[in-house]
Amino acid sequence: MKAKLKKVLAILIVLAVAFGWYVTCLGIGPVNSIKDTMKFGLDINGGVYVVLEADQDEVAKMSDDELRQVMEQTRAVLNNRVNAMGISEATVSIEGTDRLRVEMPGVDNAEEAIQQIGQTAQLSFLLADGSVVLTGEDVKDAGIDTDTEHGGYKINLEFTSAGADKFTEGTRMASSGTVEVNEVFKQVGVSERAIVIMLDDSIVTAPTCDQTISQASCEITSGNGGYSKEEASNTAALIKGGALPISLHDITSSVQTATIGEDALNKSVVAGLIGLGLVFLLMIVVYNILGVFADIALMMYVLLVLWIMAGMGTVLTLPGIAGIILSIGMAVDANVIIFSRIKEEIAKGKSVRVAVDQGFKNALTTVLDAQITTLIAAVVLYEIGSTTVKGFALTLMIGIVVSIFTAVVITQLFVGLVAESKTFGKNKFFGVSEEGVPKKIIKKEFNFLKNRKIFYAISTCIIVVGLVFSVVRGFNYGIDFTGGTMMQIDMGKTVSSEEVKETLKDYDLKDLSVVLTGKDNDQVVIKTVNALDSESRQEVVKTLGDKYGISDENVLASEEFGPTVGKELKTNAFKAVIIAAICMLIYIIFRFKSWKYGAASIAGIVHDVLIVLAFYAIFNVTINNPFIAGILTVVGYSINDTIVIFDRIRENRRLHHRKQSNEEIINHSINQTIDRSVMTSLTTLVGMLALFFMVSTSIREFVLPLIVGVLVGTYSSVFLCSPLFYELNKNEGKSKYVRENRGKK
Questions:
Q1: Rounded Cα gap, residues 469 and 618, in angstroms
Q2: Which one, 2, 34, 473, 553, has the greatest CB density within 10 A?
Q3: Residues 63-81: pLDDT tens digits?
């Protein structure tokens, strides 16, 4: 690409970034701001979600195909119900194989909504004038069969004896053509000869009747090639007595008011901007003009991530915001690796222009290997995690892909322009002195392998202490692991937690805790391991209302988790780590052509997971659903750091294996990458700490394991994984001179 064209492109990118941020913040013309465009989760907009599980006795009697069909039919019934309730953007989705997740944003009366979706649907057969012919109680059965006359499938109905008489009279009146169509049905094109089948307030189907049917059964056919199997099955399921095709009971539910979510969103945005600003400043201080260009790439990165999510219709949750902040650290990492490589090439005596080209080429492999291994963890997290965790994983995945693009394309364009500039294409603007010595954060060279046994001992001690605490005291599992209920209530005044406990003593709530919160301690957070359904929660609110004068409107948030959910979370956490570790091991062995790199990397992952668990055990930190996301991110971040060091070891072993011992190569490789490790950890921690101190408890639950994981991951990559790789290669890296003279002294 010619220099003039590069300059024009660079100017256009700067203008695009400036314009993009203006539109993102304020909107322009028909384009709304990102806040008005983005879809937000229930934890921000407020609303209700409930997870309903099919009766396991009924499930056990079905094949996999039958269960899939029944769950799809049940989803159709529930979807019809929430749509009839007039809830904007309500969704009903199948979760796993035997569960349904119903999300209802903006619901005011949450408990009533949860009760309504669980009620049996009301089925009615009406004439075109709206008069009732029969109800769901008169329908004995509904099924499907092949339609030999029209093709496709038809729906078979069978009535009770009383229903057959009613249906005969109804079809007589409908077939006469004398029924006057009411205004509601007229608007949707219902014929005067129709028998309108309605579920609640929605039309399921409205077949026309040309003659009196005096049998206990009838067929509903479509003249347009018959019904498809799916359409016929779903319609039959809706008609079948109006009942749900399978019994359901709620195992998890959550109520969140928009007030709490909006406050958390605003704080998250402020914290994110502060963290981003500190990252920008840190990059400029350390990398000067290169830092400015990295910041432009990062600004483009944030824009792309936000608008890609908006374009995909991705729902942004509070954990998703944490995912964006974390992925910024990954984006910085790619730039830091590139800048470090360029400085090294200049130090070798190459011109700035040549050093930039060579530095990008050398860095590309490292960047891809490091980001792909992290991407593996994010994909596993998305596949195994709950809906909330999926939002975190998706933003992380998008962020990783976009970070590669901005670092390799945007940063390369600007750095290449500077390299070609007569004014700025000098060593000092690339972090190298005129003598060719790279400027470093850590200037001293350390012998990391010399004291490796001390680091082994430190890690072993922490893990053992954590194990002791986990056995003696046990882990502090949250209600989403143990099962239980959480309610946050605005009391309107400061109350005593002991007094609240006393008020609720008749409910025999196990492990009941009452914590005061809010600006003036005028809110209480009630937690118990009892899984209270919506009706029981209403009774608790009524009891508190009699004492303190509150009502359902004072309930800011509530969550209920069945005990089976907790068991699955534990299983999924273990499964996720194992699957991610295996996938990473395969990738590392494939890329590095040696099982020893993979073994040392996996040892580091196991170490990091055990250290994080020890942290939770020793400090009695609550383990809950976000913990899974934290552990998987720790795994991804740790392997990212390790891969960068191992990539350098691999390169140096290839270049210097005849001149240096294995110990010298590994020590030198760690020292070469130590600045990168420090910078990446600093920039990631800056964003995380801003979120931790400024935002709500729900975000802190995500951020805490990430902060611990960043520190532990950096430590293990430098002080454990590399020494372990040395242990596996003790006799391989010795120079030819050392091998030949080993026995001569």
A1: 6
A2: 34
A3: 988 898 888 878 877 876 6
